[in-house]
Amino acid sequence: MKMDIIHSLTDAFESHAQQTESGVEFWLARDLQHLLGYSEWRNFTAVISKAKTACEISDHAISDHFVDVNKMVDLGSGSQREVEDIMLTRYACYMIAQNGDPRKQEIAFAQTYFAIQTRRAELIEQRLLDAERVAARKKLTTTEKELSQVIYEQTGGNQDFAIIRSKGDHALFGKSTQAMKAQWKVPDSRPLADFAPTIILKAKDFATEITIFNTREHSFSCEKAISNEHVTNNEAVRQTLLERGIRPESLPAAEDVKKVERRLSSEDKKALTNPESLDS
């Protein structure tokens, strides 16, 4: 395919067909129809039907990607009439391209274009999830340091911090910290939290924040009182998770958060020198 055709199609897909409403991008099927080289709506709707079937087989809800709408079109007489149309997500466009006539160069282009765009979106989504987990881990570290300080202030020493945290883990997971480290294959020298999923990091952080608040509020001055408070809070958080169908001890370990942090840092450096590097 000649470069001028590629540039023309890229411009058409990105500048003319793609639209945004309330921050959500979409394409209209009747616009996509012409971009993909279909002159008749009847023939194009047959491709859309195949795409919907493929979408459903892939365990994607059709209603999330294909939304029926009506729009007004201009007639040659200067009047208008209402016609049926479909709002499409990027994924829907990709499915349509995959089920289109492979002999059309527009289809060949669209298959590659939407595959790349979808992959780009997946990379962005994963990066956001990674960044969220790193932030949650840093927040937990800060909160646990504050709890250690509170224990020192209230009891005159912070040697009980590890004991209190361990009891909290047992209450949250229903098993000891060591048992969870063995289950998640966490090295002995590393904290369990470095391999915890984001939801667990936030759960531990929330329980610890409550412990800090109530320890100060009620002036707990011994390890037993603070431990009881921390256990109660972690049990309450565990119960909430269980009620929502989340069993903490059954979740798989997440990637070492230190590796995630290094990867994000490396990607940031690459982006500064080569903005296109994150798309590959």
Question: Kindly state the mean pLDDT as a whole number?
Answer: 87
Write down the Rg: 27 Å
- Distance N terminus to C terminus? 21 Å
Low-confidence segments, given as residue ranges, are none
Q: What is the strand content?
A: 5-15%
- Specify the biggest β-sheet: 4 strands, antiparallel
Number of domains: 2
Order of helices and strands: HEEHHHEEHHHHHHH
Shape, per Cα inertia axes: elongated
Residue share in helices?
Answer: 55-70%
Number of helices: 11
Number of strands: 4
The spatial strand order of the largest sheet comes to 1-2-4-3
Structural class: alpha+beta
Describe this structure in words.
By secondary structure, the chain is of the alpha+beta class. It has 2 domains: 3-101, no CATH class; 131-279, no CATH class. It has helices at 3-17, 29-35, 41-57, 62-65, 90-98, 105-155, 161-173, 177-183, 198-217, 223-243, 257-273; strands at 18-21, 24-28, 66-74, 80-88. Strand 3 and strand 4 form a beta hairpin. Helix 9 crosses helix 10. The longest helix has 51 residues, at 105-155. It starts with a helix and ends in a 7-residue tail after the last helix.
Write out key terms for the chains shown.
alpha+beta, 11 helices, 65% helix, 280 residues, 4 strands
List the helices and strands and how they pair.
Elements lengths: L2 H15 E4 L2 E5 H7 L5 H17 L4 H4 E9 L5 E9 L1 H9 L6 H51 L5 H13 L3 H7 L14 H20 L5 H21 L13 H17 L7
Antiparallel strand pairs: 1-2, 2-4, 3-4
Quick summary of this structure?
With about 280 residues, the chain is of the alpha+beta class. The chain contains 11 helices and 4 strands; from the N terminus they run H-E-E-H-H-H-E-E-H-H-H-H-H-H-H. The protein has 2 domains: about 5-100, no CATH class; about 130-280, no CATH class.
